[in-house]
Amino acid sequence: MRRVILFIDSFILWLLLTWTLNYQSLLVGAGFSLLVTVIFGKRFSQRPIKWFEPQRYFWLIVLYMPFFAWQCLKANVDVAYRVLHPKMPIEPGIVRVRTVLKSKIGRTVLANSITMTPGTLSVDIRDEYLYIHWIKVYAQDEENATRIIVKKFERFLVRIFE
Questions:
Q1: How many helices and strands in the chain, by DSSP H and E?
Q2: Do 93 and 42 have their domain in common?
Q3: CA 160 to CA 57: how far, in whole Å?
Q4: What parts of the sequence cross the membrane (predicted)?
Q5: pLDDT for position 97
Q6: What H or E segment, with its residue span, contains residue 130?
Q7: Is it the case that residue 43 has pLDDT exceeding 80?
Q8: Where among 49, 71, 87 does a domain terminate?
């Protein structure tokens, strides 16, 4: 079942990327989808059926993506202001934060979301901990750093990936 879902997902992605329905494109897309399925079939999601739950897509597209865009915009303004304003403090450091996400894909998306937000960079993931480089460390302790950096993303990602 896992491989069938991976093949279908890969083929749909191919169709969306090529945006053509001629037989050559369909044949090449099926070939590449089969290749992806053979290579990555065992590593695909532990519960692939969860990707057919429409509420996950609602949380991802309608709620998370606009929220993430807003967080990126705010962080861009903050970093630009710090760069342009000489008295604005830059006190970089690495903090350890905890995540409640259990799935590897959920943790990866969280780490990428943190990295893509200017001013923060995911340095490492170890079990339920992430190590984040922060342009201005507002909290040294794990609990407050987790609340400031991680919790805003986690409330969406838990509903999408867990």
A1: 7, 3
A2: no
A3: 7
A4: 12-36, 56-73
A5: 97
A6: strand 129-134
A7: no
A8: 49
Task: Report the distance separating Cα 20 and Cα 42, nearest Å.
Answer: 30
Strands (E), the chain: 93-98, 120-126, 129-134
Higher pLDDT, 151 or 161: 151
DSSP-based three-state secondary structure for 102: coil
- Both 102 and 153 in one domain: the answer is yes
Instruction: Give backbone dihedrals phi and psi of 49, rounded to 5 degrees, phi first.
Output: -65, -25
Rounded Cα distance, 131 and 152, in Å: 17
- Residue 42, pLDDT > 90, answer no
For residues 123 and 145, state if they share a domain.
yes
| Beta-carbon contacts of residue 80 (< 8 Å; ≥ 6 apart) | none
Provide φ and ψ at 93, rounded to 5°.
Answer: -175, 170
Of 143, 75, 162, 82, the C-alpha closest to 114 is: 75
